[in-house]
Every structure is written in C-alpha cells, then in structure tokens.
Write a structure and sequence with these properties.
The chain has 398 residues and is mostly beta strands. The protein has four helices and 30 strands. A hairpin with a 2-residue loop joins strand 3 (75-83) and strand 4. Mean pLDDT is 91; it is low at 1-37. Residues 242-368 form the L,D-TPase catalytic domain.
Length: 398
Amino acid sequence: MPSVAKRRRMPIAALAAAAALLLGSCSGGGEPVASGFQGHKQEKPAPPTISVAPAEGAKRVRPDKRVVVAASGGRLEKVVVRAGGKVVNGRLDASGTRWRSTERLRPGTTYTVEAQATGDGGPTQLTSRFTTLKPQNELAVIDVTPAIKGEILGVGAPIIVTFNRPVEDKAAVERALEVEAEKPVPGAWRWVSDRQVIYRTARFWPAHQKVRFTARIAGVRSGPGTWGVRNVSHTLRIGAAWISTVNVKTHTMVVRKDGKVMRTMPISAGKATTREYTTTSGIHLTMERGNPVVMISPGRKPGDPGYYREVVNHAVRISSSGEYVHAAPWSIHAQGRANVSHGCINAHPRDAKWFYDNFHRGDVVKIVGTDRPLEWNNGWGFWQLSFKEWKKGSALAT
C-alpha cells in the first residue's frame, strides 16, 4: 500500500497568534491600516436663489401686472419695491418663499426691487429694475363734486366723478372706485355719460360722519392704449340731517334738523298756469346758492309774452330747471295763502336769509302737492329713482 504522508502539526502558540491577527484585521478594533482612501467630503449647501418678475431691465411692462419675488433654497427675509419715494404694498405667502404686490403699478414709471433671502447656505441679496409702459392716452379724474375741503354736506349728497376723457371699460374703472363711511350704508354707482359716474346711497347718509372716497385708477386700463395715471382721494363731511318739506297746497315749508322742527315758513309756489310755471314735486337736493341771482325767463327775449328778468336775494338752487328757494318781497301778500311764482319757492326775506345761511349742498327738500314730478336727472334729482332702478346704471349690475 502506498504510504500516507503525515500531517505536520502547528504549534498551539503559533495558532493563537494567527487567530489574533485574523480577528484584529476583521473587527476593526485595532489601529487603522494606512491606505490611499480618504472618504467623502461634506459639501456646503448652496445659498438661496431669488427670482423677480417682471425681469431685470424689462421695458413697457403693463401696469396691471403684479410684481412677484420668489426664493428657492431659502426664505425671503426682505422685499421692498419702490417707485421714487413710494413703496409698493405686497404680501408674503405662508411659506415665506413668495412675495406678490397687492396694488397696480403706475404707468411710465421705473421700479426698483430689493430682496434678501436666507438659507442653510447663507444669505442672498438681489436688486432689480424695470419700467412700466407710457400710455398713449391718460385717464384722470378732473372733478369730484361735492368735495371742497372742509365743506359740510347734507345727508342726501351724491358723489359725482368726472373724467378727462370717455371711459370705454366702465366696469374696470368702477371697480377702482371706493367709498368708505364711518357709518356705512349700501350704495351704488350710476354712469350718466361716458365721462361721468355718480354715487348714491340706498337711503340718506347717517348724519354726522366722515366719508372717504378714493379713485384707485392708476394702472387701470380703461380702453385701448388708455390707462389711469394717478389715484385721487377726498374726505366728505356729512353734517346734520337738514330735511325740509314743502306742501304746495298748504303753502308751507317746514325745516327740520336731525328730526327737530327748526322753522315753519309761509311760502308761495308756482302758479301752475302752464307746466313751465308748475313747481316740481319730489325729492330735491340743494345744489348751490347765490346772493343775488339774476333770473331770466328761459327761451324768451325782451318784448316776448311772459318775459321776465328778476334780481333775487338769498337764493338756494334745488333743480337745474330754474327752481330756487329765495326771498320774494314782492309776493309777501301771497305767501302762506296762494301760489303765484314762476315755479320757485318764494319766501319772506327773513326766512329766505335764514334758509340761505343754514344751507349745505346735499340738504333734502321734499316738495308735495303738484302734478309735475321732478325728473331724476334734473339737477340732483337722483332720489327720484328707486335704489333698484338706480343700480341698473352701474357697469357692474347683474
């Protein structure tokens, strides 16, 4: 039989040393083995980025566009948008990463945007500029009536706004008209022409308060190539509730202030021999006053039948068709007894002066007792329409 080679036995001490070496190299419990591998480097986070719309250097930006500033990789800490010394209002969203302007821009204006954001990678700052378009045509408010500084108005006062040019997109412009009252009541605008719109409340203004009117038309497109260029604001002061009631049949005029009778006046109204000489019935508003006022018969010249030319004192206008409350010393004999005027409310000189002295534009004069109604567009006869009818003249009526 072939011989079998004998295995050589390793000494126990050598086996133990080999096992220790193997164990040490696998467990990692020993000293690290030198090599060329150094591991991954931890990269620093990038700083946040900021984007702005309209873009840097943009020209002819539409004024109805909004400025939007957004941050990526961080949160916005500061956003300031300026045009000259004016700061544009805006709102930051809940995430703090997006800011949006809340007002229209002004045409033909350069805007500067300054923004700052922070994130794990540090802060980022950005400055950007853009310019809005210059309109072909400018829309502006040229008159607000009544709006004389410090003037006290009656509780029936309208707000009459006149523009410099026809308004094509009336709905857009009307949405930019704001009325804020200390004692609010419902109200509505009515367009009476392409250039004029009038605000009237559903019921008389509550007395003794301030009303703020603002036309925020800057940046409003009112027609092709036409943009509003500036905002206009006025504060209106509503005084006491002066309400006068004229009864043509009993020939009296009772004047109340905040419900209290202040004066009862004998009067003489239109003699009603023709429609022209018939006093109009309905809710009139006082519009203006003069002392004296020259009154001339309409449509007649000297020598014509019915021609007259009278100089009257202490006259308060209540319609555009020539009706006043005024002094009439020549008809004292008829006041309180008969109607002998050409349509005006004739009063004793002392009563007419008192009424004149207590006059406010927008005071209410209610006339009853004739068969000729005041037209709603005769002077400030706006209260002749129901509020339902009045609202039909709004460009926003549904």
